[in-house]
Amino acid sequence: MTPPDTVPGPGGAAVGRRIGIGLMYGLWKPRVLGAWRVPASGPVILAVNHSHAIDGPILMGTAPRPVHFLVKKEAFVGPLDPFLRGIGQLKVDRSRADRTAITHALGVLERGGVLGIFPEGTRGEGDFASLRSGLAYFAVRSGAPIVPVAVLGSADRSGRLVSALPPLRSRVDVVFGDSFSAGDATGRATRKALDEATVRIQQRLTAHLEKARRTTEHGCASLGENPGPPKT
User: Fold this and answer.
1) Contact 218, 175 (CB under 8 A)
2) Which end of the chain is more exposed for a tag (fewer CB within 10 A), N or C?
3) Is residue 231 part of a domain?
């Protein structure tokens, strides 16, 4: 078991969620689809594609529960360091096996919280084409279900003040998929088990992303649209 005093509590993440709601609905026009697919209680991992600099805040402001994200250590600089810690985010050194980050992330899941992960490791095309094994490790070790999340911003890059951000007041679709288990029910985190889990995860995430793109292009009734900010 993870020592409880090393695990960020839910209070900070709840504050982060309120900040995320204000930020997202103040600057953009999120359309949230399928949020009811996130389990209402218990541990869960949100696996999010990563193509915008604000994907983390987007999820914090649109997910139905407070989220603890694994955030690269480079973001924890100056006043952002105490701020990110204060809202329950987890610093991770991506250049090595960061045991402290692993302990904290597993602790969040042991406590029944929500862990947010960008399985691609860094911002790119956001197509789940290249997954790291970290997501598989947390899913297999904890037994927590994975909920795939597709964040789809405007493909039109005109009107962007910053290239990595969607244009202000543009629509951003956030599509939650069906939860699934990545492990083989044994809980073993052997290299073979993690490799097999990573393949299963990539297949599910890629399929969800493709479905989300089709759904947002041709309507959203089948996934259930949330027309406004979530309740805090």
Assistant:
1) no
2) N
3) no
DSSP three-state, residue 23: helix
For residue 49, what are the CA distances in angstroms to 86, 144, 192, 194? 25, 19, 25, 20
Domain that holds residue 55: 4-156+169-226
Instruction: Specify if 163 maps to a domain.
Output: no
> How far is Cα 178 from Cα 46, in angstroms, rounded to an integer?
11
51: domain CATH number is 3.40.1130.10
Tell me the pLDDT band of 124, cut-offs 50, 70 and 90: very low
In-domain check, residue 89: yes
Q: What count of residues does the chain have?
A: 232
The span from the CA of 26 to the CA of 228, in Å, is 11
Give yes or no for a contact between 92 and 101, defined as CB atoms under 8 angstroms apart: yes
Does 162 fall in a domain? no
Extract the tokens encoding 50: 């990563």
Q: Lowest mean pLDDT: which of 125-129, 144-148, 197-201, 221-225? A: 125-129
pLDDT-above-70 percentage for the chain:
81
Q: Please state, for a pLDDT cut of 90, what percent of the chain lies above it.
A: 46
Maximum CA extent, the chain: 50
Burial of 85 (0-12, 13-18, 19+ CB in 10 A): middle
The four Cα atoms 151, 197, 147, 168 give a dihedral, to 10 degrees, of -10
Q: For residues 118-144, give the mean pLDDT.
A: 72
Q: Which residues contact 99 (CB under 8 A, 6 or more apart)?
A: none
